[in-house]
Amino acid sequence: MNSSFFRKKSIDKIVADQIEIEKLEGGSMVRNLGVRDLTFLGVAAIIGASIFSAIGQASANGGPAVSLLFVFTAVACMFTAFCYARFAATVPISGSAYTYAYTSLGEIVAWILGWNLLLEYAISNVAVAISWSKYFVDLVEGLGYHIPDYLTMDFLSAKRAYQEAQTAFAQGIDFKTLSVNVREGFTAYDTAPVILGWHFVANIPALIITAAITYLVYIGIRETKNMNNILVVLKLLVILIVVGVGAFYVQVENWSPFAPNGISGVLKSVAAVCFAYIGFDSISTTAEECKNPQRDIPKAMMWALIICTVLYVLVTLVLTGIVPSASLAGIEDPLAYMFTEVGLHGVAGVVAASAVIALTSALLVYQLGQPRIWMTMSRDGLLPKAFSRIHPRYRTPSFSTIMTGVLVGIPALFANLEEVINLSSIGTLFAFVLVCGGVLILDLDPENQQKSKFKIPYINSSYWVGLALIFSLYLYLPSSAAWLSYWNAHWSGGARADHFLMSAFFLIWLFIAYFSITKRLSLIPVLGLLVNLYLMTQMGATNWERFMYWCIAGFIIYFSYSYRKSKLQA
């Protein structure tokens, strides 16, 4: 029975099944996307909530040095992108990482990966919807209209702000001296209508935009593509304006010290920076709507990563050059805030308007990706058949699209932005780890290597991985005292779990070094695997605990339904 959990679908079987679906069930979708369209989809997904929202708190934690963290994370994503491109060129099906895991790691791993892709697409879209709502409310306020505060934020943030304000009042602190976020949250909770003893605080704009985007994705890929291309062009123009205008107001002394809170401050921003790159792999979910997926998807992934990394670094440097990084803590609209600080209120208004556009395109891409993953899982029998239903007129996965809208829209009413970002980031890194590992396993069979039109440049990792481990351990623990302190920290202190995570990472690195020698593994997928694992260790014990609960829920669904209904079981 154990072996049946790891049953795999061969590449030939997946391609043959796809041909049968298109012929017998009339389930084919419209092939309408080229390299430019796919690149724009990647840019739309990557440049979203992070550059207009999360980048502020990340800069507050790490200072200007966060720009280097963007580069480091981009390199990790580039290694991962090679692996995604390798799979996409071999298995041109819409299931993305889920399908790739099914061919290389087995069904139960594919299922839990597909379950965690919910975190990357649907759950992360909750964060995008919340950020969109913030900028939209600011824009409406700028036009002279006011939306009641209790209709523009989540319940948890409002309640926390109310409690913080009450504590401040008890200490004699004046309301006007509290931060903007605390004042807004207090007002929302205090003025909200009370229903059965519960303060009704809900993010209504986030629900409305989710419903609108879901409708657009529902009615067709051509309409979605055209709208996305327009939004991305506008987004890129505005970001170039932000960098171009902001450069004249940069004060170089604000870049010193470059890392005001040290390396720990920079690493504290790992979740936000990883969240910034969520979605570059969403390109692979549109494989069945690409004109030439085996050629175009790899190219589009690389172009999207390069373009977005350059923009992230430039925006971070301009932001921290205009506003001291410490002043950015808790600021949810940092780009608009920095222009307000230098008196350019007109430019701040333009930024707020453009953020609404930018975040709309990010919402569009995430809402596009999740239904196509569900569709593929349903075809394999792991989800009910309704999830693979194709609309007879619009040629889109209709039921899956509607369910994605519900899954994003309802939590967006009440969810907290920071909590959603952290959970989404660790789920995404987990997917990246399995894709990189899947390529290593897939390529152990020379026959599989011959079936792909995209080849990862082969560099023998035999000794590099082990030497890198030794060098890293020397830098991390340079003396016997450091080793002793590190060992004792496993059993005492508040960071025990974090030390266990780091030790597990080094142990996995040791195993990979062994297999690199015995199996002569390719270096690029190994680097992708190690870098993503390291980033996961920096997510903190609390996020790991929540992630484990999420995975346990996924396993319960698998064993209660998916295992028995799988087509491979039949």
From TrEMBL:
A GO cellular-component term linked to this record: membrane
Transmembrane segments: 38-59, 65-85, 195-218, 230-250, 262-280, 301-323, 343-369, 399-417, 423-442, 463-487, 499-517, 524-541, 547-563
GO MF, one annotated term: amino acid transmembrane transporter activity
Classification via InterPro entries: AA/rel_permease1, CAT_C
Cationic amino acid transporter C-terminal domain segment(s): 523-566
Record's keyword annotation contains Zinc: no
Gene3D superfamilies: Amino acid/polyamine transporter I
Membrane topology of the entry: Multi-pass membrane protein
Predominant place of localization: membrane
UniProt-annotated location(s): Membrane
Sorted UniProt keywords: Membrane, Transmembrane, Transmembrane helix, Transport
PANTHER family listed in its UniProt record: CATIONIC AMINO ACID TRANSPORTER 4, INNER MEMBRANE TRANSPORTER YGJI-RELATED
Name of the molecule in the record: Amino acid permease
